[in-house]
Amino acid sequence: MTILNIASIIGLISGIVLMIFGIVFDMGTMSVSFGKIMNFIDIPSILITFGGSFTTLMTMEPSLKTYVEKLASFKLVLQTPAYNDVETIKNIIALSNVARKEGLLALEETANSIEDEFLKKGILLIVDGTDPELVRSILETELSCIEGRHSDTIGFWDKLSAMGPAWGMIGTLIGLVNMLKDLNDPSTIGPNMAVALVTTFYGSVLANWICIPVVNKLKARNAAEIMMKEVIVEGLLSIQAGENPRVIEEKLKSFLNPTNRAEFDVNEGGEVDG
């Protein structure tokens, strides 16, 4: 089940609401005038800034499919990750207890009930008697590939954050050229200047309201997921080495931040005697 990320939703909605409030609010009369919003709506400027930014990114991507997939990654920002580092560590400690009492082969049955494909793959490698160094190599290679895919998606939004202001500047130049062409008619200077500047506004909105928050959210999400998978690698190799569950627990707890470590200690996994 998908859980919405409330912080992202509040942040995005608050951003646009505050921006609109800044446009319509008049400090002199302490009133709002929604008619001012029309001053910021210009179809050619929208086409130049947003159209130019998104089509440039489309040109950069290897295929239309990857372009659409990377655009769709925006929904990740609106979702809360399904993994939980505390629960993952508890699961690994539970596995170590099973291995300690019943042997490594007993993990095969447990693996079938695990949803995390990375953890499941590691367990099955251990059960198959794979050399520890080879297990580490396989898992770290997969980890590297995951991080590479994440970096590619983050880079997509990073480039889009640069395209917004760049195409906004192109729109500004177009507006200025049009203004200079009509310089003999003073009545056109104001409207043309407004059109020139509104493209810069659109570019800044695209970068600062959407792209930069998405980039930073995806970076944080990537760092958390990679750390969690590193925990899994260390935990599985410790189980394969036959280490005591208590030792594994202390080792894996060092990956947690103080808040999550305190949460872990409240309902500590620990070694099961037997």
Structure description:
There is one protein chain. With 274 residues, the chain is mainly α. The chain is 74% helix and 3% strand. The strands form two sheets. A two-stranded antiparallel ribbon has the order 1-4. It has a two-stranded antiparallel sheet with strand order 2-3. The two termini are 37 Å apart. 22% of the residues are buried.
Summarize the structure.
The protein is mainly α and 274 residues long. Helix content is 74%, strand content 3%.
List keywords for this structure.
disordered C terminus, two-stranded antiparallel ribbon, single chain, mainly alpha, 11 helices, 274 residues
CA radius of gyration is 27 Å
- Taken from the alpha-carbon principal axes, the silhouette is elongated
- In round numbers, the mean pLDDT is 90
Binned strand content: under 5%
Poorly predicted spans: 269-274
Topology, pairings included?
Blueprint: E1 3-4, H1 6-24, E2 25-26, E3 31-32, H2 43-60, H3 64-72, H4 74-77, E4 79-80, H5 85-102, H6 107-111, H7 117-127, H8 132-181, H9 189-240, H10 245-253, H11 258-266
Antiparallel strand pairs: 1-4, 2-3
